[in-house]
Amino acid sequence: NAGVTQTPKFQVLKTGQSMTLQCAQDMNHNSMYWYRQDPGMGLRLIYYSASEGTTDKGEVPNGYNVSRLNKREFSLRLESAAPSQTSVYFCASSAYRGPADTQYFGPGTRLTVL
Amino acid sequence: AQTVTQSQPEMSVQEAETVTLSCTYDTSESNYYLFWYKQPPSRQMILVIRQEAYKQQNATENRFSVNFQKAAKSFSLKISDSQLGDTAMYFCAFSGTGNQFYFGTGTSLTVIP
């Protein structure tokens, strides 16, 4: 099993460009998450999907949109990238969205917006 | 909102020695879970250990153990017999009834040969 995979690993954008970060999991998990990690800060939740067909905002959703394409895939879209969105983005999944459920993370995408 | 605080931005330990990483949290909930994640230079976040708040017994996973003090809202990680592969950033995380993970700012641990 590959676990949680993310593409691309690295990306450089110019201000105003758009792009979609892809995430897929092969653990048959119901819940999926997108986080961003900035220097000196912990991971902050952008959006999550508790189950297929549902999505909800997290702590820092502004400037992002998400799509839960099917049970396996959860994409994050930046419609008009800004330098403040320079960050490392992590996708995660868990069996269910409960406090006891361990989240499993992908390897991350390092995004730079110039 | 819950908060998770890691007050040690950086730590170092000699190989084979023991080191303790600190974490405190603030919550009004009684049923929650606490986690330690490891992030090596590869950036992959790896679960190290987790603790259920209603369990009095401290969790242990091989060389990793926690000291969970519920009343003090403290959740420290002890790494015994430190190995070079333990060099990483360590994040403490809280998960409660709101079903959202809250992460601390991390402690960068360096194991010195």
- Total helical segments of chain A: 0
The fraction of residues assigned to DSSP E strands of chain B is: over 45%
Biggest sheet of chain A, in brief? 7 strands, mixed
**In whole angstroms, how far apart are the ends of chain B?**
41 Å
Overall shape of chain A: it is globular
Q: Decide which structural class fits the backbone of chain A.
A: mainly beta
Q: Which pair of chains has the greatest number of interface residues, and how are they split between the two chains?
A: A-B, 26 and 27 residues
Give the end-to-end Cα distance of chain A, rounded to a whole number of Å.
36 Å
Poorly predicted sequence stretches spanning 5 or more consecutive residues of chain A: none
Q: Strand share of the residues of chain A?
A: over 45%
Q: Please, what is the average pLDDT of chain B?
A: 92
Overall radius of gyration of chain A: 13 Å
Bulk shape of chain B: globular
Largest sheet features of chain B: 6 strands, mixed
Mean pLDDT of chain A: 92
Helix run count of chain B: 0
Q: Provide the succession of SSEs of chain B.
A: EEEEEEEEEEEE
Query: Helical percent range of chain A?
Result: under 10%
Note the run of SSEs of chain A as H and E: EEEEEEEEEEE
What's the helical proportion of residues of chain B? under 10%
